[in-house]
Amino acid sequence: MTDSSKEWADEIMTFDQFLVEGFLVKPLRELAEGAGRKLDPSWGTLKVMQEVLVAKGLSGSEAKAIMEPMQRLHGLRTILKGHAALNKKKNSRNRSARKTW
Length: 101
Known about the structure:
This protein is an all-alpha fold. The chain contains five helices and no strands. Helices cover 71% and strands 0% of the residues. The mean pLDDT is 83.
């Protein structure tokens, strides 16, 4: 545990890279489209994975619930390591520190 905002943001980014960027979006798109799911070309890996889960028989709400923690993580990375306003970064960091994963 650390109080350093930069260290905290770096760890979130590393975890997000390991988790999200480890998936190959092209094969996931092929799985979803092969099962008849209609995908928007702008969708990223996490949304496409959600559609794959639906294609494999989960309900939309079940698939969304499974993907939601990864989407939150990815959103945190965007806020903390992106170009978000400092106030937004601080608020997101404080909210996340209080949540249980």
